[in-house]
Each structure stands twice: as structure tokens, then as C-alpha cells.
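go over whats below:
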Amino acid sequence: PYTTLFRSCRRMIAAGSGPGRRVMLAATAAGVFGAAWAAPAAAQGRLDAKYAVTLAGLPIGKGSWTIAIGNDDFSAAVSGGTTGLLQALGKGGGTGSSQGRIVGGALVPAAYVTSIMYGKKNETIRINLAGGNVKDWSIEPEPPVDPRRVPVTDAHRRGVWDPMTASLLRVPGNGDPVSPEVCTNRTTAIFDGRMRYELQLEYRRMESVKHIKGYQGPAVVCAVYFKPISGYVPDRYAIKYLATLRDMEVTLAPIAGTRVLVPLRIKIPTPIGTGLVQATEFITAPTPRTAAKTN
């Protein structure tokens, strides 16, 4: 979660010669990239996935992600931690979760929480949403005010997704959900409790996955473009760097029994090597249908 590889990579880039000091690898693949949008069909399925995180080919973290898509609700939970050299420099880890309803075929987030621990430091972010708008949010402990940050206005907290729900791509229609249209000119507004930004997806290519436990089949690769809106410090190198990148990529695969796709692999080039989140297990299966709730 931001709490995500994306936030971690911002910190890796900003840290320069000491990238491991503040990398938090909770929810390695959740909430990093994605766009969720309405689709007409409801279905049910589950994903249990494990991910390995590397930087310049060196192992630095691992995580797990569980997603349950019901007939009228959904939930996602993730945990992760540092490994290898980063664990030697300072043990870190975290957890995150999101949940919401499926209304008219659309994922509607309701609650998001993430906690990151690194050494003796920890941070918890909570966001509650209704109808795509932020009702309330908190960061504990409360961070100091930085006058350099671009202010987050009330308007910036409307029509947004939390980072984890934004990673669940629900595809409309009745055709094959693993297709180029999944990421053709899709833009999503995300609020992570501190920062408001947009991620745009653009189709790159199709791939065939053969060597991941639990999944062999097609996957779609999208380019990802980052645009900061508010809650950031404009002069920070990491923000400037990410905003100009044109070779970030996310590879998406489906949750069985649904029309929801999620990240299988995430690639973010950094000045000190490529940051990569790669699924090592992607075990997914449809679940028995249940009657939709009427209340």
C-alpha cells in the first residue's frame, strides 16, 4: 500500500546511495498501478498470490496478496516485508486491506487501511469512502506540516479510488477480458491519504505466461504514466523523475471466474537499477455463486 512499491520506489529514488533505509515492502503489488471502472457483469473468484521484489536483480522484499470477489462485495488483503540486504540494513514490513461493494457491476470502495513498520517507526493510514468520495482519512502519527506541499483540496478527494482498489481492473463486456482494451487510454484518480495523483495506462503488448505457479495463460502488458496532482513537494527529485518516466510497465492477469485483472508483474526503472515486483505464485479459482444481497 503506500505502502506500495510505487511509494517505495519514490523513496528508493530519493534515497540515492542509501535506497534501503526507508523501503517499505508491504503490499508489494497492491495499489501500485491500475484503473477500476464499471462493468455490467458480476462474477465470483479468489486469488492467493505471492510476490518477490528485486532492485537491480537483488532480492529486497517479498509479499502476499489475497483477493476475494463476491457477487456484491469484494475484499483484498496484503502483507510484505524486507529481505536480503534491506533486512540486514533494517527490518521493515507492513500490511494493508481494502473492502467495498459491487454496485451495478462497478467496484465501489468503502474502506482502506495500511500500516508500515520500519525498525522502531510505524505509520498507519486509514481512508473511508462513499460513492467514490473520501468521507474521512487519517495518518498516525500525524505527519508534520510541510509548506512546500501542493495543498490537497476537497475537490481532489472526490471521484477517487484508494490505491489497492485501483489495482483491481474490472473489464466490461462479454469477450475475453485479457485484451488490449484493458489498458487503452485508461486514467484513474487515486488518493492515498497523503497524495492525490493520476495513473494512465496504455497498451504495450500481449504475453504468454508459462512459469508461474498457479497460472499459465495470456497476460496483457500496459505502460503506466504518473501525474502528480496535489499533496506532493514539487522540488523533490523522485516526483520529477517518476513524472517523466515513459517505460514503467504493469503486466495483468485475470482472477478466475471474474472479469477482474490484477498485477502479475510491475516494472519501475530507477537510477540505481530496475525495481521489479514479480508473482511467484498466482493461484486463482472461481468460487460458488451466492445470491446477491437485496438490502
